[in-house]
Amino acid sequence: MKKLFYPAVFQKEEIGYSVYVPDIPGCNTQGDTLEEAYEMAFDAIGICVAEEIETKGAVPTPSSPETIDHCEDEFVVLIDFDFDEYCRKYDNRAVKKTLTIPAWLNTMAEKSNINFSLILQDALKTKLNLHQ
Question: Which of 8, 10, 57, 89 is most buried, taking the most CB atoms under 10 A from its CB?
């Protein structure tokens, strides 16, 4: 998935900032500082996008920032969102996979105390050009 840039509407509060993302229903958050509010918006987008993918099978399309309606005391900030990066950072759940390899390879690997899960993870990261 490519990087997405979601416009988020920030509003200065008595303490900190409140934030909502118009393109993603229910995507609201806040932070005590502008930096914290931005980080919280990134996390909120991740949670909401994951939910949208799970329930609707699609990623919400970001709007152009100039099309976002907002009040005079609000301002629009683009949130640089990379779903793949978000998943690597927050979704480390283990998923069980069944696979098949030749018996002779299995025997040799077991004798060498090879960690099959680690080898598969490393191979998949290499194949997918994921460098951490």
Answer: 8
